[in-house]
Amino acid sequence: MTKIMKKENPAQRVERIKKEKSGIDVLKDIHEYAIHNKEIDPEDIDRFKWYGLYTQNKNLQADDDETLYFMLRVKLVLGSINIEQMRVLADISKEFARETANITTRQAVQFHFIQVRDLPEIFFRLKSVGLSTLFAAGDVPRNITTCPVSSIDKSEIYDVSALALELNAYLDGNKELVNLPRKYKVGISGCSKHCMGHEIQDLSFTAVKSANGEVLFDVSVGGGLASAKQFALHLGYVKDKQILDVLKAVSIIYRDEGLRESRRKARLGHLINKWGIHKFKDEVQRSLGFNFISDLIGEYTPYSKREHFGIHESKQDGKSYIGCAVNGGFIGSLGLSSLADVLQKHGATTIRTTTTQNIVIVDAPSENAEDLAKELLDINIDANPNPFKARTLSCTGSKYCKFGVTETKDKAIELAEYLNSEFPDFNEKVSLSLNGCPNSCGHPDIVDIGLVGTKFKNKNGETITGFELVLGGNLEGNKSTLGKKMKLKIAPQDVNHTVANIIDAYIKSSKKYLGLFLKDLIEGDEFTVYSIVNR
Question: What are the b/e assignments for 37-46, b being 16+ CB within 10 Å?
Fold first, then answer.
């Protein structure tokens, strides 16, 4: 009698795959597939994520090209890369990735069109300069986000560089955390502008000053976007020497108690929602053997003002740091190699990436800083970006991502350029995002004006791909707000005009800043919004 196997749901399938073989152990299989050109086991493709690999959308492939291409994510500890690393990344991009290279919102770099046959060589080159893809994806702790000007910014509350390295050393490749319920995102920052974005991390530590001048760290848990769309909840405060213990306690609780029945409800925030924040806090404190400090409330910088653009004198004698905008996060092989050339020419050595897909040059000789910044303009890297180029985010989009329904990278660059040409004198901080699907990789729910990829029927009844308009998102501690979907669908060719209409209506309004104007739109009637965007 034939035994009928019960069909697995997605969560059951992934949990079985992880139990049968650790994602860490797939490295030897990757080499085996590459060397012998073997057909890849579909279950190993899932495990490839533990080394930063995702299968890529096939829409750019020729009809007769049956190659299985991957996106490859490279982790950057502290978001940092030096000239030597930049050149290696540029070469990988040119030789193996069709000159693609994008900066991500977790301060990493992503390549596309990667083939398995090239992975041993790519991994070798990355390792030779101290870079890695391990735990860049999968159900593991992801790259720790932090402020790109840690240790060099004179206004920072606390230099968290050493702490960030300590936390990363615990998380990176930790076999005790190789099988978490889902991805796990941690951040730490001492930034006075709160640029790390603690509100959307699974676990974060944010430096604040108490009334007596002592630096403590706000511990927040359970934040996330996409299916876990909620802001982190405040647990309390700890001292710097207690941070690693808190990280260990929360990580183990999440590993052991996290919800594994559904992939859409397996993030840390879902566990906290099930238990309640008080029970979760009690469990963490019981594990720690001490209680969080309470009764301290901090004020946080609005999201659109969390940036470090321009030339600033560093803590290091004779050095300056230069915050620069990169168009839509796309830098490419030429951008990486050209950036390395400019830095070397002017005596700088290192950049750090930001959570808004931009960069900071951290050690420019002050005497060369102005000339360095001017030369960067030749490669479209801007130390004094206009408001639209400065904070326009974009996800990978339908070019490469199998979830994307709309193209985003090129459209984001085009939109920022169009808005600047239409409003050259606009000087207010504004945040924008183009996201190719509802998964929120480009953070459309926390910006002033977000565009989320969707399919809809046009006036002729034809199904087309385009964007849904989202307005009024913001990160600002307990004042944070998620953007509201405005029930308006926009064809790609209408995006520039639509966003320009919103900016124009704001300029002509009596509101003092864009956030207030958008708040009124959100709270008003749908006809008002429709009339503005369709003028």
Answer: eeeeeeebbb
